[in-house]
Predict the structure.
Amino acid sequence: MDRRAIFFFGAAVVCLVLVPLSDGYAWVSTTVAVVYVLLGAASWLDARSRRRL
Amino acid sequence: MELSVVLVIAVALGFDYVNGFHDAANSIATVVSTRVLSPRVAVLWAAFFNFAAFVVFGDAVATTIAKDVVVQDVLSIGVIFAGLTGAIVWDLITFWFGLPTSSSHALVGGIAGAAVAKAGFSVLVVEGLRKIGVFIILSPLIGLAAGLIITLVIFWVFHRNRNVERLNRGFRTGQLISAAAFSLGHGANDAQKTMGIILALLIASGHAASDASTPLWVVLAAHTAIGLGTLTGGWRIVKTMGSKITRLQPVGGVAAETGAAITLFATSAAGIPVSTTHTITGAIVGVGAARRLSAVRWGVAGRVVWAWILTIPGAFTISWLTFQVVDLFS
């Protein structure tokens, strides 16, 4: 799997772990986690399409 | 006002000054490394916007530092002095080794260490420290995502433009604006930490009510000190930030500074004391990662992460020891 995608998914997991600790700012952790999931998916698709070329 | 209070205010402003020259690199590293401005002009540019920040932002971060790190009753002149000393000594140690650590977390660790030395761990405000702790991790991740997304948007918008020379000129001008925005965010978030310490000192020494807001002279003094610190700049850290993490072009500089500035504006408005160093480092890594992960020099980034991990315990320990000495003489 694309290393960059793994990095982004890892960052998303870190943000999700922080959600219960974030009190009034849980929405920030959640939003950042969602952004990293999207970045991870986009990076994985990008690497996949490059391999096919 | 007693001489001891005046002296500790001077030490607080000294911390702000050290913060300015320690973190000046964050504001101007990318502008200098892409040769948009000479180091001398870049420092003047950043110092001006550091100072101007007081017009734009309130004092929410100052209030968090004054009231959400340790319980207010434990704050005394000795505790604040020891806390500041720990933070300054830690900043100077990391400055010497060229590590872009966080002055903000040194301050939090320092105040916590001195307060614990005085009255034990029960004086720590767990909720406030948890909020700060969560954003120690979140702020570089937000900066990284913002830097990366802005880079991708810029590439997408300009990918048909074949006049690279003209485009680069445009982004060199754009960097002046993004560096100014980042310096504004730096002035807002970091100067407010000193404002918070001075406010806590004024409350502890009976010169302000416990619900008082930050006096204007404190606001002006803190922003002046950080601006003067920036004027004297820290070139060892400029080198690490500007070229060792990833090589930056003007377009990358714009993306990194804009991403970091957005993060700092939002956190300053929300009263969250984040590290400008963490934020810009994350954003620079994000710009590098937009190309490919191997564009980021992870060895240097890892060394920076270790310095982050050690900052709060390091400043905590120095302040704890300093308070023991102060206590002997008081």
In short: Chain A has one domain: 3-52.
